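tool_call predict_complex ligand=N13
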Amino acid sequence: KRWTLSDFDIGKPLGRGKFGHVYLAREKRSNHIVALKVLFKSQLQQSQVEHQLRREVEIQSHLRHPNILRLYGYFYDQKRVYLILEYAARGELYKELQKCKYFSERRAATYVASLARALIYCHGKHVIHRDIKPENLLIGAQGELKIADFGWSVHTFNRRRTMCGTLDYLPPEMVESVEHDASVDIWSLGVLCYEFLYGVPPFEAREHSDTYRRIVQVDLKFPPKPIVSSSAKDLISQMLVKASTQRLALHKLLEHPWIVQNADPSGIYRG
Ligand SMILES: O=C(Cc1cc(-c2ccc3c(-c4nc5ccccc5[nH]4)n[nH]c3c2)n[nH]1)Nc1cccc(F)c1
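tool_result ok
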């Protein structure tokens, strides 16, 4: 099936990025609502990301998981490339986190467990580093989390302070730029869990050089407020381990008491 722009009614902009915009759109025949991402070939060529885009499209179009945003297809015209992406009805997770300041332990555990399941699925297909910082997470109609993996490119509306080139989520081996494996995702998930519970990432600092140092030294501190259970701190401490082989394995994470006692098995936070 060759898609063209005339197959869609275009709606409001959903996000804006370096390589183009994302619009709400409806496929005319099926009335199916999607997110249509428009990338400008000129900018892709300038930044030599065509090969990366092809790889991303290849990866994303084969991933099928409730917590990974679907790529339904793509098409192009003279000047643009269009990605037909799943529409996440409740929008961007980081806006929700900014609004609530931090999440309850049940909400955080539910999100962390569903991300762990998505990462187990990805690693099973030899796909790693899904770039799981809050900016890359969307919320579906039932409240479920979706990894949207903007990885290589875009930022959506009103960037977060640590948005551009954030180091916060990188594990030591990536900051020290040695080769990385699937265990980088466990580190990033630990950083994300900490930020869900405290509202800030664990190694945040004013200067990149300070964040860098705090990461490589694993300078992990738990503030007195908000009050967080020792079980949650225990899980985070088992994920933010410098030696990548010593990090808690994702399937072990799903058996951790804090996850078992707090995560909703459906991966849906019902409040
Ligand atoms: O570019 C992205 C990731 C991506 C997803 C999105 C994106 C942005 C926003 C939304 C939304 C959405 N729903 C909203 C509801 C309320 C407010 C805002 C919303 N945004 N749904 N789906 C989206 C998808 N932008 N960029 N993936 C990608 C890139 C290259 C190749 C490839 F195969 C995939």
